[in-house]
Amino acid sequence: MAPEGSKAHRIFLLLQDEIARGVPAMGEALPGELRLAEDYGVSRVTVRRALEALEAQGLVERRAGSGTVVCKRPGDGVSMSADLATLMPQLLEMGQKTTARLLDFSYGAPAPSVAAALRLGSADRVQRAVRVRLVEGKPFSHLTTHVPADIAQSYSEADLANTPLLRLMERGGVRVDHASQQVSATLAAPQVADALEVQVGAPLISLTRVVRDASGRGVEHLHALYRPDRFRLEMELDRVGAGDGRHWTPVVMPDPGQGEAG
If we measure between CA atoms, which residue out of 41, 58, 159, 170 comes closest to residue 100? Predict the structure, then answer.
């Protein structure tokens, strides 16, 4: 249930994020309506609509004499995590522990940004797939992949619905060598929001990855969107060096394998 009005929606998302971060903790009460209205610079009616939406999701409970009490965090019981230092092999394991729903499978000209990333020409075509990955039947990621058409000929729509893409490409003879990726944040557009079962405008983790073969050719462009209440990125750090040169460096764990859940 989405609160009516853009202001109520914004307050709903802000409070939902605070609850997800444990502020306040389970069993503790949110500030009163008047205090929230003052803190966020909105009316009590707006705050009330936001609280009603949180209650409809089961995150809070309105109790007489106790106020609005946190009774659940977003994503409780359903979550995935990955270490940034070993993200590629962990995504393979994620693909084995989760299920995927294929939303789109088509061929066509790539968008300019995808063509540039894969270094494709104006006449080149790509296979585009859109999938939602689920854990325990609940969606946590929205994946859009683009693969050069000649590589994609080695697998079918049915193959992609059941097998991680990287495995399909390697099975078809592609020698994956390296990848580059960027992580940022974005807001859920209507179609993505519907697929991930979140509100339009909800915050999402955004990951873009370009995979290349041994010759440097771009073989896959992945744009992944994750629900932050069901997926998190982690990294272990070591303090190294001496004197003024001491700094943090990522701890790289042993690689249990290669692959990805896209």
Answer: 159
> In whole angstroms, what is the distance from residue 169 CA to residue 147 CA?
9
Predicted structure pTM score? 0.67
For residues 65 and 88, state if they share a domain: no
pLDDT digit string (tens) for 194-243?
999 987 788 899 999 999 999 999 999 999 999 988 887 777 778 888 88
For residue 133, what are the domain limits? Answer: 80-250
Q: How far apart are CA 136 and CA 255, in angstroms?
A: 26
- Which stretches of the chain are assigned E, i.e. beta strand? 60-63, 67-70, 80-83, 99-108, 126-135, 138-148, 176-187, 203-213, 218-226, 231-234, 237-240, 247-250
Q: What is the pLDDT of residues 102-156, one digit of tens each?
A: 999 999 999 988 999 999 998 999 999 999 999 888 899 999 999 999 999 999 9
31 & 153 share domain: no
Residue type, 116: A
Per-position b or e across 72-103, b if 16+ CB within 10 A of its CB: ebbbeebbbebbeebbbbbbbbbbeebebeee
Identify the domain boundary among 36, 52, 70.
70
The answer on 179 and 95 residing in a single domain is yes
Provide long-range contacts, Cβ within 8 A and 24+ apart, for 25-31. Answer: 25/70, 26/70, 26/71, 26/72, 26/73, 27/69, 27/70, 27/71, 28/69, 28/70, 29/66, 29/67, 29/68, 29/69, 29/70, 30/60, 30/67, 30/68, 30/69, 30/70
